[in-house]
Amino acid sequence: MNISALSVEVNATCSSASIIQKFKPTRPKEMDSVRIILYSLVFLLSVFGNLLIIVVLIVNKRMRTVTNSFLLSLAVSDLMMAIFCIPFNLIPSLLEDFIFGAAMCKTVAYFMGISVSISTFSLVAIAIERYSAICNPLKSRAWQTRSHAYKVIAATWVLSVAIMVPYPVFSILVPFNKTNNITAHMCRLEWPISQVEQTWYVLLLSILFFIPGVVMIIAYGLISRELYRGIQFELEQKKDTSGVKNGLNGGLSSCHDESDGCYIQVSKKPPAMELSTLTTSGTVKTDRPRSNTSEAKLIAKKRVIRMLIIIVAMFFVCWMPLYTANTWKTFDQISAQRALSGAPISFIQLLSYTSACVNPIIYCFMNTRFRKALLATFGCCRRPCHNRRKRKEGDDEITGVTGVSISKFSYTTVSTVGPC
């Protein structure tokens, strides 16, 4: 009779799963090969991608903006997550033994928790900073400085270090006997009572998943609404302009309603407009660049809206299965172990790890300015990037824009280039 008794310990912050096998299960070796390949791929992408971001943001002084300060903290935390989560979960799972000792058990568990906490708090800080910069640009300029960003980053690190103290305190090596009577160990949390464990996991579920998820949905939802209103305004302006050129309107309306949707005030100059409609050659020279700029703004806003949707979706896709499994395991351990042991918990782990390699792609590598800075940093196209830099000052980070009288519409337009 082939009996498999599996006990799974899931770490709520890093999806650390250690499988204790009292009897040798029938596990296909092909699955181990697939796991090794996938885990190695995610590990390499995470380490390589986040290291590139750290180097680029540190070397390039022009990239040291408010948002990029948060992105640097995010890259460091994601790098920590890749280093302390992936190898120290995959290797013990394959060997069915935590071979790194009691000191590393406490150290690894602690840094696992810190890295995931800082990563989540950084995502929330970026969302709030983007909301303030785009939806309340004039007010945000008074406090959105690099010194303020450094204080927020320091607070997130201190808070994360304090919150995750239970991990080194309660993490211990638990011995067990394998099928060949060899004593092995697993690194797990030993709580004093079950009520404390349940309270801990519910707390982590709230502060590391539910609350950050709600904040990101609200912030990016409001940003998307602001950008959508900018798109609508651009389309109406385009219609009005085409009406003027066709002789249907004598001038542009400065505002279509009394709400905050009126982003800019267009000066009324009927004589000038009439003269411009009479001069065909002048119209061709001035309206074409304006039309091209308008189309570029519309495309940029739509692209940013899609990117914001992807950011929120990836956060929930990566972390919802893990926190669901942790909550399930805390309140019904027997059924959770029966359902999640083996391949399911392993791929839930992998899904959570992908956030460490997805964040660099979404926040930086999809951005043109970051790619140019990356090439310039490693000397591939230093001169072309330097020449283009002067021609595209409008592509600068939102925090670098000057002028107190900048309108909300113009602020939103500049913000569509992305965070890097």
Automatic annotation (TrEMBL):
The chain crosses the membrane at residues 36-59, 71-95, 107-128, 149-170, 200-223, 304-323, 343-365. PROSITE patterns: G_PROTEIN_RECEP_F1_1 (PS00237), G_PROTEIN_RECEP_F1_2 (PS50262). Keywords: Cell membrane, Disulfide bond, G-protein coupled receptor, Glycoprotein, Lipoprotein, Membrane, Palmitate, Receptor, Transducer, Transmembrane, Transmembrane helix. Its main location: membrane. Residues 49-363 form the G-protein coupled receptors family 1 profile domain. One of its GO terms (cellular component) is plasma membrane. Pfam families: 7tm_1 (PF00001). One of its GO terms (molecular function) is gastrin receptor activity. It is found in: Cell membrane. The keyword Cell membrane applies. It comes from the Eukaryota. It is a multi-pass membrane protein. Signal peptide: none annotated. InterPro entries: Cholcskin_rcpt (IPR009126), Gastrin_rcpt (IPR000314), GPCR_Rhodpsn (IPR000276), GPCR_Rhodpsn_7TM (IPR017452). PANTHER family: G-PROTEIN COUPLED RECEPTOR, GASTRIN_CHOLECYSTOKININ TYPE B RECEPTOR. Receptor for gastrin and cholecystokinin. The CCK-B receptors occur throughout the central nervous system where they modulate anxiety, analgesia, arousal, and neuroleptic activity. This receptor mediates its action by association with G proteins that activate a phosphatidylinositol-calcium second messenger system. Belongs to the G-protein coupled receptor 1 family. This is Gastrin/cholecystokinin type B receptor. It comes from Danio rerio.
